[in-house]
Amino acid sequence: MAVSETERLIEAEAMCPHRLVLEHVTSRWGVLVLIQLLERPYRFSELRRAIGRVSEKMLTQTLQTLERDGLVHRDAKPVIPPRVDYSLTGLGREAAEQVRDLALWTEKRMAAVTRARQAYDEARAR
């Protein structure tokens, strides 16, 4: 019998809940969403444009996951056309600041990483 994705997630969450949250926060799109929402609340389409190269489906899944984890707040306004704003919760702001610091560190240290990669590749080529 095949295990559904939901069942797999529930099982993983029960075994190691902090790892699952870490996975959500540090995922490719999770990082970008959190950093972007540090600036201000965004509507879905604005956030998608600001992040770039993310599919509607992937952004929706990422936002739902971060909302479930208590990091993102979804504010659906009962207007026509519908308006939904996304913002960080207090917990989300804490996580976003940590992720942003890591992203800034990678930018600052990229030259050192590039040198290390070149040295590694040269040593392996011999």
Automatic annotation (TrEMBL):
<dbReference type="InterPro" id="IPR036390">
    <property type="entry name" value="WH_DNA-bd_sf"/>
</dbReference>
<feature type="domain" description="HTH hxlR-type">
    <location>
        <begin position="16"/>
        <end position="114"/>
    </location>
</feature>
<keyword id="KW-0804">Transcription</keyword>
<dbReference type="Pfam" id="PF01638">
    <property type="entry name" value="HxlR"/>
</dbReference>
<keyword id="KW-0238">DNA-binding</keyword>
<keyword id="KW-0805">Transcription regulation</keyword>
<protein>
    <submittedName>
        <fullName>Helix-turn-helix domain-containing protein</fullName>
    </submittedName>
</protein>
<dbReference type="InterPro" id="IPR002577">
    <property type="entry name" value="HTH_HxlR"/>
</dbReference>
<dbReference type="InterPro" id="IPR036388">
    <property type="entry name" value="WH-like_DNA-bd_sf"/>
</dbReference>
